[in-house]
Amino acid sequence: MSGAIAYIGLGSNLDAPREQVLRAFEELDRLPSTRLVRRSALYRSTPLDNVEQPDFVNAVARLQTNLEPRRLLAALQAIEARHGRERPFPAAPRTLDLDLLLYAETAIVTRELTVPHPRMHKRAFVLMPLAEIDPQAAIPGHGRIDELLSRCIGQKVERIT
Asked: Per the CATH hierarchy, to which homologous superfamily does domain 4-159 belong?
């Protein structure tokens, strides 16, 4: 299969987070015209900005897809909905969060989608699993993953599987 390489960030901190993320990996691999090429281990992270809520389970998936970015985003949102995702307020706890982090080497800025993900370069819980599956990865406009990760001092993230 040819197609674009896309990286998806996965996160959950409600309703058996580990199982939510593992199920989401399977669902990503079943998307039309898409296959799961690699997946990271699972990581536990504390919520950013001192928000009082349970710790997260995070991971990153590398997909090869023929879906264009907006269709891929719609497919990700459909998976979130099947997992019971609600958005009562920004940074709310969630059953499943799927973020389109990178899509090929494309920059996209629309009302509904920004790629590269606008905050991924500041988040150790994204950078650590991304570095695991693609150590040479870089975020356009921000730099290499290893350099960016060194700037995420104080963020508590640990590999759990």
From this structure: 7,8-Dihydro-6-hydroxymethylpterin-pyrophosphokinase HPPK (3.30.70.560)
